[in-house]
Automatic annotation (TrEMBL):
Disordered: annotated segments: 1-85
Keywords from the UniProt entry: Nucleus
Extent of Low complexity compositional bias: 48-77
Protein name: Transcription factor domain-containing protein
Superkingdom to which the source organism belongs: Eukaryota
Extent of Polar residues compositional bias: 22-38
Keyword rRNA-binding: no
Length: 532
């Protein structure tokens, strides 16, 4: 459990900045008249129009893509009423050209192999869509918005002001183009439309702190999940489609690990589809997310029915989920604690003996081991497995606490002590792994295959794609009830580093949130806490 006084205050007083506040957005009052018809078209194609709960969940998905449209009608970009679907790619300003090169050199990794080691890509589909003679308007506008936002949020650059203004203009154009695309049966399923949604989600992580909200990011990813389901198996026919499916799944996996995370009906389809194809550790992490989705769904239905109504059927469902969670947790423990297979053990690159507490806010490493890997791909697999195991312990505790009843002390008993110790080890693993990502600049033992830019030099700051990848796991570990005082301070310092140096300003929004896991989830499940 948390031992710091701040954590104790957060549990006994109303949260200072709970998710319910952090999800507010200034765009919610700007609803375009075509929003309902556009959403209705998508729901009819997605087969979800008959489900009130699914419709409610999905309505907010693409809502965010269209909610800025009326606001953009007064913008000065001169694009109002244009019916053309394409923008000539040759008409690109010097600033946009710089932003394109910068984005490709910081975020776009091309998949490759180094011997027997696969090096996975990140946004690998961007170069292909950009190289088209006539890129789709929705994609090109989204790319320009995101690339300009990336160069605008560099640390200490004078280009920030003009680039951010240009990014906002292109963002509004992209939102209007998206509104048109999702009403077209063909465009709604196209690769470039899905790519545009994923880029707009990245845009939100770069500029979100200016609005103090992560709602727009969440809604973009809900929209992406909805589109992936709409595209079905045909959407996986190309390498780009497969890569975007993986991007969507991984992003949704990321924020599904958050305390009080929103339920996404399309996520179940993503998980089931992937589980049928995955055979390795990825399947383990996906099965864990499926369990969390089941828990959220059962407890939401229980809340709707009234917390005093503990129907035997609901109790049996929770018991079944708990049994599955315990079995899966045993598999994670075999992997992470007993290191079976042996090659799973994280390589220790260095060992830090001690640090003054005052240094933990800014230091690159915390006391203890510091992990290192030959490729980022191996680091990512360990990162996701550690945070997935951490969140699985919260799933076990949530089920046990609910079954014990609203008045029982859920922190009592052998299982709690066992899960608390396991969660503490996973937080320690994430602390040991954080320096690898926060210092990763492409100079691995193997080369990094960025789409653009010169080879990194020793001492160069991290590549921002690394900060993007580690953001959510660091936040999940920092709000864990089982993080020690020094660990939490170090993790919050790394989040501040991602905001100030890597330009991932969503990290600053996370720092303002006052949440605790799993205590907040358990309070919500019992009807005494808040939820999204």
């Amino acid at each position: 459990m948390r031992g710091d006084t701040t954590g104790a205050e957060n549990r006994t007083s109303p949260p200072q900045a709970p998710f319910t506040e952090c999800l507010q957005t200034p765009f919610t009052s700007h609803k375009q008249t075509t929003t309902t018809s556009a959403m209705a078209v998508l729901h009819r194609r997605n087969g979800s129009s008959n489900s009130n709960s699914s419709s409610s969940s999905s309505n907010s998905s693409l809502d965010s893509l269209m909610s800025t449209s009326s606001a953009s009608s007064t913008s000065s970009d001169g694009d109002n009423g244009r019916a053309d679907q394409y923008i000539p790619p040759s008409i690109i300003s010097h600033l946009e050209d710089r932003a394109t090169s910068y984005f490709l050199s910081e975020f776009v990794l091309i998949p490759m192999r180094e011997g027997n080691l696969p090096v996975r890509g990140c946004f690998p589909w961007v170069p292909k869509f950009m190289s088209k003679t006539q890129p789709a308007k929705v994609f090109l506008s989204a790319f320009r918005a995101t690339s300009l936002a990336s160069i605008a949020t560099q640390h200490g650059k004078t280009v920030i002001g003009s680039a951010l203004s240009a990014a906002q203009r292109h963002y509004l154009v992209a939102v209007r183009a998206m509104n048109q695309a999702i009403q077209d049966p063909t465009l709604a399923k196209s690769d470039e439309t899905l790519a545009a949604v994923l880029l707009l989600a990245l845009y939100e992580t770069l500029v979100t702190s200016s609005r103090g909200s992560i709602k727009e990011y969440i809604n973009h990813m809900k929209g992406a999940a909805m589109m992936v389901k709409l595209r079905g198996e045909q959407g996986l026919a190309t390498q780009e489609g497969e890569a975007m499916f993986t991007t969507t799944r991984n992003h949704v996996l990321g924020f599904s690990c958050l305390p009080c995370a929103p339920e996404i009906s399309e996520f179940t389809w993503l998980l089931r589809h992937t589980c049928a194809r995955e055979k390795d550790i990825a399947a383990l992490n996906i099965a864990n997310s499926a369990i969390r989705q089941d828990i959220d769904r059962v407890f939401r239905m229980a809340r709707d029915a009234g917390h005093d109504n503990r129907h035997p059927r609901t109790v049996q469902r929770v018991l079944t989920i708990l049994q599955s969670a315990r079995a899966l947790e045993a598999r994670y423990r075999r992997l992470n604690d007993t290191h079976v297979p042996p090659q799973w053990a994280s390589p220790v690159a260095e060992w830090v003996a001690s640090r003054p507490d005052a240094d933990l806010d800014t230091c690159a490493t915390a006391p203890g081991p510091v992990y290192g890997f030959e490729t980022m791909s191996m680091g990512v697999i360990h990162l996701m497995t550690f945070v997935s195991h951490l969140m699985l312990t919260t799933s076990v505790l949530r089920c046990a606490a609910w079954l014990a009843g609203p008045d029982a002390d859920w922190r009592a008993g052998d299982e709690y002590r066992d899960m608390a110790a396991t969660a503490g080890r996973r937080v320690a693993d994430l602390v040991a792994l954080a320096p690898y990502f926060c210092r990763w600049n492409g100079r691995d033992h193997t080369r990094a295959n960025f789409a653009c830019g010169a080879e990194a030099r020793a001492g160069d700051p991290l590549k921002r794609v690394a900060g993007q990848i580690v953001l959510w796991p660091l936040f999940a570990a920092s709000v864990s009830d089982f993080a020690k005082d020094g660990e939490r301070r170090f993790l919050q310092g790394r989040l501040r580093y991602l905001a100030d140096v890597a330009g991932i300003t969503q990290a600053r929004t996370f720092l303002e949130m006052r949440v605790s896991s799993p205590s907040d989830d358990i309070e919500r499940d019992r009807g005494t806490g808040y939820h999204w």
